[in-house]
Amino acid sequence: MVLHGPNLNLLGKREPGVYGVVTLDEINQALEKEAQSLGFEIATAQSNHEGALVDLIHDAMGRHAGILINPGAYTHTSVAIRDAIAGVNLPAVEVHLSNIHKREEFRHHSYIAPVAIGQICGFGAESYRLGLQALVHYLRQNM
After folding, report:
1. Is 5 exposed, middle or buried (0-12, 13-18, 19+ CB in 10 A)?
2. At 89, phi and psi to the nearest 5?
3. How many other C-beta atoms are found inside a 10 Å radius of the C-beta of residue 40?
4. Fewer CB atoms inside 10 A, N or C side of the chain?
5. Would you please indicate which residues are annotated as catalytic (active-site) residues?
6. Tell me: the pLDDT tens digits for 59-115?
């Protein structure tokens, strides 16, 4: 399951100097191809609403092997998303387009990182592909 958090539907238009010019549709298409090449299938979803993301995480239980998530700004604020990931007990990889550790101080803290198997940030749209590869590698080692 690939989850995109708030404002990621604006990729390609929103602050291209920070987030790049690649659209969310282009990221999802690239992830579909990458998943196929790795022998996996993915489902993608985006929401600007915290509760909807929590519901999608809950729905992943029993349906998906893992979660690739860019929680957007909820990274720094959402105990609910953190608890949902911990609750479903699925391996999760946190990804970010920008390097959150080189940005504003409030972006340095992630509620998600402690319940994720890893975090990839700072590589633009490539962060997603790297995250998917890391998740698949983890799944193959632990299935």
Report:
1. buried
2. 55, 40
3. 15
4. C
5. 19, 96
6. 999 999 999 999 999 999 999 999 999 999 999 999 999 888 887 787 789 999 999
In this model, does residue 131 exceed pLDDT 70? Answer: yes
**Residue labelled with tokens 């999608």:** 56
Cα–Cα distance, 24 to 29 (Å, whole number): 9
- In this structure, what token pair is assigned to residue 26? 């282009």
Residue type at 30 in one-letter notation: A
Phi-psi region of 39 (alpha: psi -120 to 50; beta: other; left: phi over 0): left
Query: What are the residues facing 44 on neighbouring strands?
Result: 2
Going along the chain, which residue ranges are E strands? 2-4, 44-46, 67-70, 92-96, 118-121
Residue 109: C-alpha distances to residues 33, 62, 90, 114, 127 (Å): 32, 30, 22, 10, 18
Q: With bands split at pLDDT 50, 70 and 90, how would you rate the model's confidence at 136?
A: very high
